[in-house]
Design goal:
The structure is a homodimer. Chain A is α/β, with parallel strands linked by helices. The first copy, chain A, contains eight helices and ten strands. Chain A binds a DNA duplex through α3 and β2.
Chain lengths: 230, 230
DNA sequence: GTTTGTGAAGGATTTCACAGCA
DNA sequence: TGCTGTGAAATCCTTCACAAAC
């Protein structure tokens, strides 16, 4: 379905290259909800229905999608299958991505064992650690390599994504090494605000930070609340 | 301007009650960086220095803090210890918070074993599961209870936070149960966009979603990148 | 009748820039 | 001098509202 043509450059927007980052971050949510509709057997969905699922306004969904093309049909909505395919292609989810994990402690092992990455096309193909006791061993079917072989492994194995699961104190050093190895996307589990050049994406997974902002609303006087996409 | 006799904060803002949610979400980052400065022995910090660490503009930091009070001294900056204390108090991080975990599968067990919550004042005091084979057993020092005892346990143990680590298909039901039990803050590890009343806070921890938006920038044509706090 | 795609309006957040204080 | 706190300006993001399409 990833045919050679870009959706339909009829609108006023440039192709989709200038979509705000917030919008790009919502796209995976749409993909996920579309999968649910598809599983439920729906052939078409409206922005209204998508919005109801995601607790967003239909207008926002339509505007978001409009950055990338004109995928809907008036009076009818969006074809579930086609929109899902289209968005997956825009996000690059129609291929496999190889990832390298740094840090094979408790957390790193849990990440390797986590079954949620593979079905979505993310494959951890190598693990790295500084501890020479574990280097050379296997965890599941993944070889643990020395941390100073990152660059070589990245090149040899086609690793495009780095996953950081080392203690906070070591995180920036590891991230620098990943960047030096040419990695442009980093998923960081360490509780630090890391520094990267601005052609590198970095996202933090930080449950403590999430809890620490929710407690604000648990204090008696503060009502209201917040929903953050998950 | 409408000041009656507000004891501590002298500013012009209302006490801090109307701080935008984005601002509240950044506060924990400030707390974290302040701890680093404190560990490094600094007594004072400027918004410039904080901004450098967090890759934010000094103006944003000053504006954020101004929602809650006037903590700095012109020409000198902020007292590291005092600001940290003040922010912890605003966020409610100066107490312990009890959490209940739902789902003791692989992920749930990893969460129980995760050593990052306790030092920050978050304590998992009970675990729940639907599987009668595990109900009644202990994981570490935590008892596994039946999922339909949530309400009673929440009351008995003073649980204020729910942590959801069940399969996607079960997540909404579990979240409904937590809400019915009076829980107002939920940390959701399940990959679903959950529905909660708006006096309940919910945050998702979702590494797949994070990866799925980064791949957009890995596609050849899309340069630039993003830094998301971690 | 229904629902999209989108300019224009509205709202929210960030940054500027400077008065005021140490 | 150095740096905060903050109105005002600028930017960014969301929602409105409606013509066009089915």
């Amino acid at each position: 379905m990833t045919m050679g043509f870009t959706p339909a450059p009829t609108g006023d927007h440039p192709p989709g290259a200038d979509a705000p980052e917030v919008v790009v971050q919502r796209l995976p949510l749409y993909v996920r909800v579309l999968a649910q509709f598809e599983a439920a057997g729906a052939e078409m969905v409206s922005s209204e229905q998508l919005g109801a699922q995601l607790q967003m306004t239909p207008a926002q969904i339509r505007k978001d999608l409009s950055y990338f093309g004109r995928f809907g049909k008036q009076g009818r909505g969006y074809n579930v299958k086609r929109l899902a395919l289209e968005l997956r292609s825009i996000l690059g989810l129609d291929r496999q991505w190889n990832a390298g994990l740094v840090g094979v402690g408790r957390l790193g092992r849990a990440i390797i064992a986590y079954p949620g990455f593979r079905p979505e096309g993310f494959r951890i193909v190598a693990a790295f650690d500084a501890d020479s006791d574990v280097v050379g061993s296997d965890i599941g079917d993944i070889q643990v390599r020395s941390i100073n072989q990152i660059k070589k492994s990245v090149d040899d194995l086609g690793i495009r994504i780095g996953i950081v699961a080392v203690p906070a104190a070591d995180a920036q050093g590891v991230i620098d090494a990943l960047v030096a190895a040419g990695i442009k996307a980093i998923l960081n589990y360490a509780p630090v605000a890391a520094h990267v050049p601005n052609d590198v994406s970095i996202r933090g997974v930080d449950p403590v930070l999430a809890l620490q902002s929710m407690t604000y609303f648990l204090k008696p006087h503060n009502a209201g609340a917040s929903a953050a996409g998950d």
